[in-house]
Amino acid sequence: PYDGPSADEILAKRKQYLSPSMFYFYQKPLNVVDGKMQYLFDENGRRYLDAFGGIATVCCGHCHPDVVDAIVNQTKRLQHSTIVYLNRAISDFAEALTSKLPGNLKVVFFTNSGTEANELALMIARLYTGCHDIISLRNAYHGNAAGTMGATAQCNWKFNVVQSGVHHALNPDPYRGVFGSDGEKYARDVQDLIEFGTSGNVAAFISEAIQGIGGIVELAPGYLPAAYSSIKKAGGLCIADEVQSGFARTGSHFWGFETQGVVPDIVTMAKGIGNGIPLGAVVTTPEISEVLTRRSYFNTFGGNPVCTAAGLAVLNVIEKEKLQENAFIVGSYLKERLAALKDKYEVVGDVRGRGLMIGVELVTDRQLKTPAKTETLHVMDQMKDLGVLIGKGGYYGNVFRITPPLCFTKEDADFLVDAMDYSLAKL
Ligand code: PMP
């Protein structure tokens, strides 16, 4: 039983002592006390089905026993920095991680977060090419330090920091974009940006395969091959941000970029990689990785024994429990059931995504695609009261983000859709 402070007391403390920039979901924010696989529990022991944990890091399920064991055992033995000593955890995990990547993506640099991973990737690309210009997609999120905030392309995540040399390409968004699902047409904008906005050479192109914070926007088919081809011709490197779409989440593939049949020069990852433990990584080729030897470069806790032991346990669980297959089967079923809600309710404008990374966009007018922001918040609150947690995103805040732990079952999917159905009916 929980004998700690109430949600109201925690909220009051938070208001007094924590940054006013911190935000939360729900009119009455949830005090989560315990977690077990796809469930979260509040201070009263009430159980919630967590269909948003995937985004907040959890891929194998909250407190998965194998991952907890790996963390506890390594913590008891040693937790330290690996910058000046050897330790098997970091090397074992690097070996296992690269075995999951195609081509010559064989060298890892560990960080503590997705922002750090993307900052490093952008710097590597600039060092390797000697160029400064970066192209990223409108509606993208890549982090909130100076460089990654520049590459991020939604004004609500951007402060007025220096963002030199960043160009934002047309978003290949099949629902809201001007060219529908024709990926190659959108990619022409990348070529145009190179020709009209740069010297003709660029450092890098960075993108998610399925935009997460942007509202589960799966890039139009054919986009990445065409965009990568323009970037390569301009001497740039292609960076795949797999912070959300990686680690088996899409079901059909282990990495999001694989859904478009491309092989990037650099892959960045975080969140799911550690199942809740702060961990990020940049993976690239031996040749490109050489640029970091020009100076001394380190990250004190990047690749520390505890986090990398957790990472290795996560990979083993994904394999052992066939979580990719589960994401595919349960995700396809869930998407099908959610798509049926579109036939039932005018307010459901679009259902999209892949595997256990699904978006449901609410609009008050299907023709004009007017964002139904208030309705989105209302349904989320209702669903929470029914015991189901989902996320929201998109530039207009009108897209449900459904990204549960990969151990989600068909029964969970049914419960989620029934709760959404009931809440939509009551709108
Ligand atoms: N890239 C993507 C696609 C993300 O969604 C996020 C975080 N939501 C980041 C990078 C940044 O990761 P972090 O918050 O760990 O810095």
Description:
Its cofactor is pyridoxal 5'-phosphate. GO terms for molecular function: alanine-glyoxylate transaminase activity; pyridoxal phosphate binding. Its EC number is 2.6.1.44. One of its GO terms (cellular component) is mitochondrion. Belongs to the class-III pyridoxal-phosphate-dependent aminotransferase family. With 427 residues, the chain is of the alpha/beta class. It has 2 domains: 7-60 and 322-425, Aspartate Aminotransferase, domain 1 (Alpha-Beta Complex), CATH 3.90.1150; 65-320, Aspartate Aminotransferase, domain 2, CATH 3.40.640. The chain is 36% helix and 18% strand. The chain is built from 12 helices and 18 strands. The protein has helices spanning 7-17, 65-77, 88-98, 114-129, 146-151, 183-197, 223-233, 286-289, 305-320, 323-344, 373-385, 410-425, and strands at residues 32-36, 39-42, 47-50, 107-111, 134-137, 166-169, 204-207, 210-211, 217-218, 237-241, 266-269, 280-284, 348-354, 357-365, 370-371, 388-389, 391-393, 399-402. The strands form 4 sheets. It has a 7-stranded mixed β-sheet, sandwiched between helices. Strands 13, 14, 15, 17 and 18 form a 5-stranded antiparallel β-sheet that branches. A 4-stranded mixed β-sheet has the order 1-2-3-16. Strand 13 (348-354) and strand 14 (357-365) form a beta hairpin. The model has no long low-confidence stretch (mean pLDDT 97). Bound molecules: 4'-deoxy-4'-aminopyridoxal-5'-phosphate (PMP). The site of 4'-deoxy-4'-aminopyridoxal-5'-phosphate has 14 residues, from helix 4.
